[in-house]
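Schema walkthrough. Field components (list of strings):
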Amino acid sequence: MTQYFRPLVTAAPDRSAHSVPLAGGGLFFDRVQILERGRAPEVIALSDVPNDAMAVLMASRADIAGLSMTAPKLMGVLNVTPDSFSDGGKFDAREDAVAQGLALVKGGADILDIGGESTRPGASFVPADEEIARVVPVIEALRAAGCETPISVDTRKAEVAKAALGAGASLLNDVSALSFDPDMAPLAATSGAPICLMHAQGDPKTMQEQPEYGDVLLDVYDHLAAQVDLAIAAGIARAQIIVDPGIGFGKTLDHNLALLRGLSLFHGLGCAVLLGVSRKRFIGTLSGVEAAEARVMGSVAIGLEGLRQGVQILRVHDIEAHAQALPCWQAVTG
Ligand code: HH2
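Field assembly_structure (string):
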C-alpha cells in the first residue's frame, strides 16, 4: 500500500534543534505524518522518513516568474467575466478591469490572475475567441499602463493561453490540470511559462452535483501527481509547475475541510503550492455570510491557515485585507 508523507509544519519560534526547513522556506518540520489508505495516520520522526521523500520536502522551490518562493506571495484575482461568482460583471468593461488590475498591484498583489471564463459551479462554457476578446485587451492595456507585475491567465484553453502570453502574460493557470485541452501541455513546454495545475473533479457545469472520493486528500494528491508526471513527460520542468488542490471544484464542505487540514501533504509533489479559498461558498456555509464579497474575514482566516502549512501562493480577491494580514502573520511566526 502506498505511503504518503505529510510534514507537520512548525513556525520558526517553535522549531526544535533537529527540525529542517520546509521547501527551503521560512517554515520548519521535525515530524511527519504517514498516511495510508484504510489506516489511521501515524506520526514518525524524520529519521524514519525515506531519504527521497525527505529530499523532496526539504528542497528549495525554484523562483516562479522571477518571484522567490521562500516567502508567501499574493495572487490578486481579476475576473473579466459577466458571471464570476464573487465579482462577475464588475470588471467586464476594459477600463474598469485595468483600473482594478492596477489597484490590486498597488494593494500588494505579487501576481495578477486574469480570467475570462467563470469556473464557478454551474458556469457555462465560453468559446476561445470570446475568452480571448475578454482577457487579451486587458493584459495589453495593463502592460501599456506600465504594469510590470507577473500576469497569470486563468484558462483551460491553449488558444487563450497562447494569446495571453503573446499579450504579456507570463504564467498559466489551468483549473483542469491539463485535462481539458491536449494542446496546453505542449504550449507550456515550448513557452517555458510556469503553469499551475489545479485539481477539479468533473466540469464546472456539473462538478458540485455529487462529488465522491475514496480518500479525498490522497485521491487529489494522486491525481495531481499523475498530472505533474504528464506535464514533465510533455517537457515542462518540475520547477515551473505549481500545484493546487482546487478548493470548491467538485468538493463538498467536508472534502474542502479535509484538504485544508492536510494541505502540507502537497509539498511532497516537489512543486510550489497554490491555494485559492477566497470568498468561496464553503466560507459562506461555515460563517453564515451569504454575500460572496462579504466573506473577507473568513477568507483571511483560512488563507492564513494555508500559509501556516507552507503554501507559497495565495489566490485572493481582497488584496488589501490579505496584504495587511500577511506581514503581521510573518512578524509573529518568523
Ligand atoms: N478558483 C477559481 C478560479 N480559478 N484557479 C486556481 N489555481 N485555484 C483556485 O482555487 C481557483 C482558480 C474560482 O474563483 P473565481 O475566479 O473568483 O471565480 P470564477 O471561477 O467564478 O470566475
